[in-house]
Amino acid sequence: MSIQTKTLSVQLAIKTREVRESLSKIIRNYEGFSLQKDQDAVRVDVLVLEIGSDPATEFETIRALLKENVVGSLFLTSSRTTTDILLPALRAGAKEFFPQPIDPDEVKGAFHKILIESLQSTSGGEEQASLGKIFSVLGAKGGVGTTTFAVNFATSIQACAKDKLVALVDMNRLVGEVPLFLDLETDTNWEEIGKNFSRLDAAYLQSAMVRHSSGVYVMPAPSKFDAEAHLPTGFLFQLVKSMRQFFDYIIIDSGMYFDDNSFKIFAESEAVYLVSILSLPCIINVRRLQESIYSSGGVANGKLRIIANRFEKKAQVSLAEASKIIGSEISMTIPNNYRLAMRAINNGKVVAEISRKSDVAKVYQTLAESVVESAVERPGGIFNWFRKN
Ligand SMILES: Nc1ncnc2c1ncn2[C@@H]1O[C@H](COP(=O)(O)OP(=O)(O)OP(=O)(O)O)[C@@H](O)[C@H]1O
Ligand SMILES: [Mg+2]
Fold it and tell me: From ligand 2's centre to the CA of 143, what distance in Å?
């Protein structure tokens, strides 16, 4: 992912020569800003204006400029710092007021804030329309079928959206099993990728991921302890965010891995699937996890979907009882079909490859169909070539 560089235009309306020179020097040396000489420009991102001999009229002009959106941000300066200048200056909509003589650090600080605001608003805009959808999958306990769910969900999405790019990320450090479930040989993993953190572009990700015959791109977890690998803080969250630019759907096998990264990823997810079986300890875990996930603040109500895996109609704990204990609906049940699930795992196949018409394969297909829609195509870069191959 390349960081978009953007240059903001700055105009100086300053009469005092030393003040003008001092500001020009600061701005010329500040990457991200350029001084605009053209007085007839339609719009300027930042205007620095000196209050002169007729403040009342100048403040009126300033209000009009801001109202017409001719000026993005306004900074004011004056040799006087009395309240009769400062108060109307702030009321007129000035973001900062620089006393004279100019303090370069104060000016740089104010420009820095503007740059950050501008970058944030740009990336926010991009996100609206065209980022891929994240689906997180986590387990209420070990061994409940989280990886089975993630793998079959991802491949089912790919099966009903053939021209979309689907990624499957294994977050289970040291115990990741996604490659085994899909019979994939690979020596890459996200820890290796983390060593090249500055290069999260499409070409690099494509070379670092392994492709399953279904079309799904897999990002395996590291399987060995590497004392040398020091991933930057927040790396996994950044990685998933970068992937959203190229992939239409990103399914994450979060296993039972909970840290800051995972909570941030849950917050960005279209849905968080919490896989459980209908045993009492597991149901109690569901209730606890649900509370933690909702109290983390990032996951909106209704985005957490509880899945009852290995479901038997005649089970000791009924669906209704389980819902009551958990305090919310169980969104979906997946039939218990141990023979099929084991055959799939032991052959490195997904359930639809073993039996497309099986009860379990049909459930995954229905779920995939419900999430696949006419997603906006991502730019894709080098991945684009693979869309229809
Ligand atoms: N619908 C199903 N019916 C019967 N058995 C199932 C079903 N789904 C998964 N299983 C079985 O449950 C077991 C655990 O599956 P899986 O490895 O996917 O769970 P997990 O929660 O990812 O485990 P771990 O905590 O080890 O990562 C496997 O033996 C799998 O075959
Ligand atoms: Mg697993």
Answer: 7
Neighbours of ion ligand 2 (CB under 5 A): 146-147
Question: What pTM does this model have?
Answer: 0.69
| Cβ of 345 below 6 Å from ligand 1 | yes
| Boundary-marking domain end, from 76, 92, 127 | 127
282 and 238 housed in the same domain: yes
pLDDT tens digits, one per residue of 118-167:
766 655 555 545 789 999 999 999 999 999 999 999 999 999 999 899 99
Nearest to 107 by CA among 177, 46, 171: 46
Question: Do both 22 and 169 map to the same domain?
Answer: no
Asked whether 338 lines ligand 1 (CB < 6 A), one says yes
**255-293 b/e (C-beta count within 10 Å ≥ 16 → b):** bbbbeebbbbbbbbbebbbbbbbbbeebbebbbebbeeb
Answer yes or no: is 2 within a domain.
no
**Domain final residue pick, 78, 94, 127:** 127
Cα 23 to ligand 1 centroid, rounded to whole Å? 65
pLDDT tens for residues 10-22?
A: 999 899 999 999 9
CATH number, domain of 67, equals 3.40.50.2300
